[in-house]
Design a protein that fits this description.
Strand order of the largest sheet: 8-9-10-11-12-13-14-15
Largest sheet: 8 strands, parallel
CATH topology of the largest domain: TIM Barrel
Strand content: 15-25%
Distance between the termini: 49 Å
Helix content: 25-40%
CATH superfamily of the largest domain: Metal-dependent hydrolases
Length: 431
């Protein structure tokens, strides 16, 4: 399809900052073909005209850490300590989830992501084929990793590794890509991380993991290896060439420099880290050191939403309060975390996270004619401090509308509601 959006405001990247301009935006074959001044002659012929008056067109948001299948566990394991949350509540419940349940959980996650402006997500999951199949159906852009655990990738970790490779072979496309995703230092040995690193380099795959999320993880690692989790992964080679490191809350002296030197990206998850009592990542220190900072929601079992607008506001406000510095985590920096920084972490710099000629047409439109968005003194600030995601009215991924005028076009929401509610009743009965 060929579209031209007229009459709207565009969020563009100029001089290393986000700015707004009133221009026409052309989409052709899933790519932004042109951004032009509106002329008296009107838009070029042959394009379906979309009136964007009163709307802001901006890059689709990128959620660089989540577990989409866990959406059916939303509000199931609230107000409990982290290790009890993981091993006493969530893990036993996950054993009851069927592949069909996981498929439903993914679709429910995508409905929430799309309606709140997320077009790309990075996932760690447990159910082979279900996340990519659901992403394919919903039209999401995805970077998916089957969670890996074990002492040795080729013995006790082999079955999951084979599942990951099977998924890649079956579903990989321009829109759905794959990562290697060892779970964490407490479920994977250093040898395992080294083996995954070698496989990732050989296969040209991105790497992602959870890292230094809790004090228990840090203290156990110091006890078992005499080093921090970051130092252990650095020695295994996992950080080499860059990896997505989720959480990074419990940093020790030297850890941040190891991450910076490796070129890895940190994915902070403020709502999840706060809710599970794990603390807050030293985000200001990451930025000061030049670490590429991204933002994720984590899964809804710990967040409990997938709304990046909510997460953006929390990120800035939390760290202004922690540092007692009102200039910390500016709106510009926060917006970069879910756009250009995330694109860089995913190897998609210049293709995602920006509106520019040649970039992929992953675009969201926000209705600026909402009370919370008026009077429009600073649109960039309003996205972080005023918006809540309900302003998103249109979503395009790969040049295709997946939501138009607040109506999802690729997901049967009533069916998803029915199936997720049925599983919820089962879970309440079971536990």
């Amino acid at each position: 399809m060929k579209y031209v959006f007229t009459g709207g405001t565009l969020l563009l990247r100029k001089g290393g900052r986000f700015v707004t301009e009133n221009k026409d935006l052309y989409i052709k074959d899933g790519v932004i073909e042109a951004i032009r001044e509106s002329g008296p002659e009107g838009p070029a012929p042959g394009y379906e005209k979309v009136d964007a008056s009163g709307k802001l067109l901006m890059p689709g948001l990128i959620n660089t850490h989540t577990h989409a299948y866990m959406t059916i566990l939303r509000n199931y394991a609230d107000d409990v300590p982290f290790m009890a949350w993981l091993f006493d509540k969530v893990s036993p419940a996950e054993e009851q989830i069927t592949p069909e349940d996981a498929y439903t959980g993914n679709l429910l996650a995508f409905a929430e992501m799309i309606t709140s402006g997320t077009t790309t997500y990075t996932d760690m999951h447990m159910f082979c084929g279900k996340s990519p199949a659901a992403a394919q159906e919903a039209g999401m852009r995805a970077f998916i990793g089957r969670g890996l655990v074990g002492e040795d990738l080729y013995t006790d970790g082999l079955s999951r590794f084979q599942e990951a490779l099977k998924e890649q072979a079956e579903y990989e496309s321009d829109r759905i890509r794959f990562t290697l995703a060892p779970h964490a230092i407490y479920t994977c040995s250093p040898k395992f991380y080294a083996q995954v690193s070698e496989e990732a380099e050989k296969r040209g795959l991105l790497k992602q993991t959870h890292l230094s999320e809790s004090k228990t993880e840090l203290n156990d690692c110091l006890k078992n290896y005499g080093k921090t989790p970051v130092a252990v992964l650095q020695e295994t080679g996992f950080l080499d060439g860059g990896a997505l490191l989720a959480h990074c809350v419990q940093m020790q002296p030297g850890d941040i420099e190891l991450i910076r030197a490796s070129g890895s990206s940190v994915v902070t998850n403020p709502a999840s880290n706060a809710k599970l009592g794990n603390g807050f990542a030293p985000v200001s220190d990451f930025l000061a050191a030049g670490v590429n900072l991204c933002l994720g929601t984590d899964g809804t079992a710990s967040n409990n939403t997938l709304n990046l607008f909510r997460e953006m506001g929390l990120l800035s406000l939390i760290h202004k309060g922690l540092t007692e510095d009102p200039t910390a985590l500016s709106a510009q920096q926060v917006l970069e975390a879910v756009t250009v920084n995330a694109a860089k972490a995913l190897g998609m710099e210049g293709k995602l996270g920006v509106l520019q000629e040649g970039a992929l047409a992953d675009i969201i439109a926000l209705d600026l004619c909402q009370p919370n968005m008026y009077p429009g003194n600073n649109v960039v600030s309003s996205l972080v401090y005023s918006a809540n995601g309900s302003e998103v009215c249109d979503v395009i991924i790969d040049g295709r509308f997946v939501m138009k005028d607040r109506q999802l076009t690729t997901i049967d929401l009533e069916k998803v509601y029915h199936e997720s509610h049925s599983w919820s009743r089962f879970l309440r009965y079971r536990h």
